[in-house]
Amino acid sequence: MAEASMLFGKKGSLKEFGILGALIVIVLAFQIATNGTTLSSGNVINLVQSQSYILILAIGMVMVIIAGHIDLSVGSVAAFVSVVVAISMTDWGIPWWSSILLGLGLGLAIGAWQGFWVAFVGVPAFIVTLAGMLMFRGLNQLVGQSRGIGVDSEFVALLAGYLPEIGPDTGYNNPTLLLGLIAIVAVVVVELRRRARRQSVGAEVAPMWVLITRLVLVAGVIVAATLLFASGRPGTSFPHSGILLAIFVLAYGFLTQRTTLGRHIYAVGGNRRAAELSGVRTRWVDFFVMANMSVLAAVAGMLWIARSQAAGPADGTGWELDAIAAVFIGGAAVAGGIGTVAGSIIGGLVMAVLSNGLFAIGTGSDWIQVIKGLVLLIAVAIDVLNKRQGRFSIIGLLQRGMRGTRAADPA
């Protein structure tokens, strides 16, 4: 029994994966309620395509919240950048690739502007980004003149397209199959290397049968997902936005968990004064998380206009709330110092699947908003109350499990 408990992590249990378990339960419930539509190929592809921009925002937002801040401006920043990018292609005749670089540069400039006020002037991030939310929403409407602006077809193909059909006719999209195979190999290599590192320092390792069982389960999930994406209707497969999202998840997961900068972000959010006494340059950490957030908002905005094939005055409305909800459902602490990229992605998927499933069973958009708000409030309130009273806490257990894994798994 003790060995079996290690199947899902060192001295772990299913309780430590409560957020992921909640996602699985929600998916299965809607799969039954919709007679199999939720896990149909078309719906899964659409879900990734339509939610990638929010999940990318959540990656940046979790770092902001870990550092003890909040960013209310991401929707407006995304909207302003996207309208400038659209105008640059349509009205200014700039090539689409140059427009992407322009959008990234503009996002960085906005982030540097907001980061300066937060880090070096000392204005609270809530106030700075509230001002930014108003300013950049107004600039979006001023620059775009409150009109819809189209974008270049090559821009659409790059950011809103799918993996192409290549190779022999197998009945599936071959590049998607290859992507799934690469993912399985990567998981196996990472797990084996992690096991070897732990053995080299004399740390406890799970029995081989546990490792093999875990790899088989993960590989099975990857195979199932790969077949879903590879069997979409002609012209669709794994979306480019999903690939971009995966790259960001891996990159920022590594940054937050395996780098000095990542440790400094957690240190600043956990205890700013102690971090300063330890030599952490807290102002530059604050500057980085704010600037990075605006760059990711720029990416999200460009993904959105590529999918909708136009930029408009209502773009980005409410995006900051979706990103913040994803982060808190994914286990971040309001006071900072706690949170993970993976948890935020799972939290975002919980909200996305909930909205998708409710819409599929005929729930009105008004009630969908009500239910999502209640889910966020109840999930966080129950966890806070349980932690305060010393009882079981899903978020607390998830975070303790992840911290224990980091401590016992040297880089």
Give a short overview.
The protein contains 16 helices and two strands.
Task: Provide structural commentary.
This protein is mainly alpha-helical and 411 residues long. It contains 16 helices and two strands. Strands 1-2 form a two-stranded antiparallel sheet. Helix 3 (74-90) packs parallel to helix 5. The chain is globular.
Any low-confidence stretches, pLDDT <50, length ≥5? 10-16, 391-411
The strands making up the biggest β-sheet line up spatially as: 1-2
Anisotropy-based shape: globular
Going by helix content, strand content and strand pairing, the class is: mainly alpha
Q: Estimate percent helicity.
A: over 70%
Number of helices: 16
Radius of gyration in whole Å, from Cα? 22 Å
Number of strands: 2
From the N-terminal CA to the C-terminal CA, the straight-line distance is 29 Å
The overall pLDDT, averaged over residues, is 87
The SSE order reads HHHHHEHHHHHHHEHHHH
Strand content: under 5%
Strand count, sense and barrel status of the largest sheet are:
2 strands, antiparallel
Write the SSE topology.
Elements: H1 18-33, H2 41-66, H3 74-90, H4 96-121, H5 125-144, E1 149-150, H6 153-160, H7 174-200, H8 208-230, H9 240-258, H10 260-270, H11 272-277, H12 282-308, E2 310-311, H13 319-329, H14 341-360, H15 365-388, H16 394-408
Antiparallel strand pairs: 1-2
Helix pairs in contact: 1-14, 2-8, 2-9, 2-12, 2-13, 2-14, 3-4, 3-5, 3-12, 4-5, 4-12, 6-12, 7-8, 9-10, 10-12, 13-14, 14-15
